Amino acid sequence: MHSVLVGHSGVTADEVLAVARGGAKVTLTAAALDEIAASRETVDALAARPEPVYGVSTGFGALAVRHISAPMRTRLQHSLIRSHAAGMGPTVEREVVRALMFLRLKTLASGRTGVRPVVAQTMAEVLNAGITPVVHEYGSLGCSGDLAPLAHCALVLTGEGRAEGPDGTVRQAAELLAEAGIAPVALREKEGLALINGTDGMLGMLIMACADLARLFTSADITAALTLEALLGTDRVLAPELHAIRPHPGQAASAENMRRVLDGSALTGHHQVGFDGVAPAPRVQDAYSVRCAPQVAGAGRDTLAHARLVAERELAAAVDNPVVLPDGRVESNGNFHGAPVGYVLDFLAIAVADLGSIAERRTDRLLDKDRSHGLPPFLADDPGVDSGLMIAQYTQAALVSENKRLAVPASVDSIPSSAMQEDHVSMGWSAARKLRTAADNLTRILAVELVAAARALELREQAAPRASAPASRAVREALLAAGGGGAGPDRFLAPDLAAAEEFVRSGALVLAAESVTGPLA
């Protein structure tokens, strides 16, 4: 397993994914350790002065008016972590915790936080040992950092709290650190604050969501293409010249993906003249859910591009308060506010909801005998005796409905905290949590469309022997091999849908199409 180098100039999204999901080891560069040590000298000099400095020799939040004497400052930092480790509810996923710890380590390595090198080194050791602090669902308002989630992580560095070991068992942090040979950290001035004052949780979830949605947008282009083909639609609307005159890059990419998946199909292009008597109602145009698929998916792609730009900027940031500037000044600031990240998390949730909505409309069209152009009702083997995919669409509709609720922005809300000192917050953590749910739901929604389109194409080819596109045929064969099922009498359907969900989630759908088309956007 490779090691990710953490320097003072930031990390990449791929490195975050490698640590969070791939378990990659982390190593602090010598330059980063030098930068950390230099900024610590500044903090030590301030700590020795009689004037109060926020985060160094004062309380926190609304309690910042109290000056804390030197003998009490270690207690101050530990009290901060203990009191702020106040999360409640279910534990969040291991990958989320590893992402937020790695991103906090990235900021420590910037040399702008004023911690000692041992603090950063201990965090790296905890990550490398596979020790994952227990972090709870609720506790962050997305301002002053993801406070409670980060505090639960910081608590483990001090040998307190609970964590999941490499074997997945939750135990006391002190036991896990001792087994790994890691000495707990005794926090000094500024260090407790530096460990919790960042947007790391919401940023980590944004980076992972961007990776997942990139795959899902490509998956949606593939399922839309299969549906177009099964409905005997026209691929002429995918011509590059049509998308060049409305130059949204995402739209052009989605249209090109669909065009390549449909290349070589003998089923498309029969919308006006019928298809061997199977399509009794020739059409001038396809329905919006089919014809406008590139426009909707493409808008989502462009939203994703903007979200990635915000994530890249945040990855280059050193978020803490106060910060140690390169010229030695220590200044308070508001960079911990999660608005930039929260906005794009909510924006992505809107795009996800709409993409799922149009996919469900296509599925419903495949199942409706009055709109499917010759397919049997609900794609059933013996309609009336068999119900086919009727209830699969119900499940899909329920997921679409939930995603519409999850698209309500979290970032437009704010609730005052800390005796009105922190009187406007971003709710970015909440935006990230609901986006993760929405992306999971979108995976299932696309899986249902895929099952329906694959079954429709199988029935279409049985009725009249014209070949589907090589790429769509490769997708159907791979889905069948993965347990996604095919046409036939009614059977226990949930396993077929679960197999299709994993087929989409794992990226196998995209790989199957690309085995014919080559790399898709």
UniProtKB/TrEMBL annotation:
InterPro entries: Aromatic_Lyase (IPR001106), Fumarase/histidase_N (IPR024083), HutH (IPR005921), L-Aspartase-like (IPR008948), Phe/His_NH3-lyase_AS (IPR022313). SUPFAM superfamilies: L-aspartase-like (SSF48557). The modification 2,3-didehydroalanine (Ser) is found at residue 144. GO terms for biological process: cinnamic acid biosynthetic process; L-histidine catabolic process to glutamate and formamide; L-histidine catabolic process to glutamate and formate; protein homotetramerization. Contains an active site 4-methylidene-imidazol-5-one (MIO), which is formed autocatalytically by cyclization and dehydration of residues Cys-Ser-Gly. Pathway: Amino-acid degradation; L-histidine degradation into L-glutamate; N-formimidoyl-L-glutamate from L-histidine: step 1/3. Its main location: cytoplasm. GO terms for cellular component: cytoplasm. This is Histidine ammonia-lyase. The gene is hutH.
